[in-house]
Design goal:
The chain is mainly α. The protein has 11 helices and 2 strands.
């Protein structure tokens, strides 16, 4: 039984979602059935179906929770005065949210083909992430910290969204048994930004990268 399934003071619906998320993250969504979730919780399948009629409803509820968290983050960041440190914070929080719901990113195309709700809404969220990346980088340009035209900003924002979307799949493929290090993902994205920064801002970014990647507690295990 997972640690999350034993937490007291939670409603049955909350416990189902928390346990399903842990199992999906550990095993991958295709390998976890509704009955397996019920067994992990030590409740009857009927009790689970009272709250969620099928596994699709559970997956959709988890996606909606993720989209809400990500939407709140994107809203906040678009209202923030942007500098290298703010972009770094945005990326770290974005990667943390993606890691929390990482099963959504294991095989996006297969997941979207199996769940109409996700197929309809996930592309909207990805475009929103790209838009926020554009806004942050455009603010850097307006502040004189970055030199880039509209086409370069569009390409940069697209690449930031691309790396952020497929980082987990890449890391799982290259290092299937290692811990995931959010710092490496963030640093990889910031390397996309660095060439367009003005010299002083680039030096500050390099200083941030050195401090950030030297902190050991960014690594998270696959079981979290």
């Amino acid at each position: 039984m997972t640690k999350t399934s034993r937490q007291p003071g939670r409603t049955t619906r909350e416990r189902i979602l928390t346990t399903a998320l842990a199992l999906f993250n550990q095993q991958g969504e295709p390998h976890v059935s509704s009955t397996a979730i019920a067994a992990e919780l030590e409740i009857s399948p009927g009790n689970l179906y009272y709250h969620f009629p099928n596994k699709e409803a559970i997956v959709n509820a988890l996606y909606d929770a993720f989209a809400t968290e990500m939407g709140t983050l994107l809203d906040a960041m678009e209202q923030t005065r942007s500098g290298p440190e703010e972009i770094w914070l945005f990326l770290h929080l974005m990667f943390e949210a993606i890691w929390k719901y990482r099963f959504l990113y294991y095989d996006i195309s297969t997941l979207m083909s199996g769940y109409a709700h996700i197929e309809r809404h996930f592309p909207v969220l990805l475009r929103r992430k790209q838009h926020t990346a554009y806004v942050l980088c455009d603010t850097l340009t307006a502040a004189g910290l970055m030199q880039a035209d509209a086409n370069e900003l569009t390409a940069l924002a697209r690449n930031i969204a691309l790396v952020g979307t497929f980082w987990i799949s890449f890391q799982r493929a290259v290092h299937p048994h290692d811990e995931a290090d959010i710092a490496l993902g963030v640093a990889q994205v910031m390397q996309l930004v660095a060439p367009l920064l003005q010299p002083e801002a680039r030096r500050y970014l390099q200083s941030l990268a050195t401090q950030y990647t030297s902190v050991p507690n960014h690594a998270v295990t696959k079981g979290e």
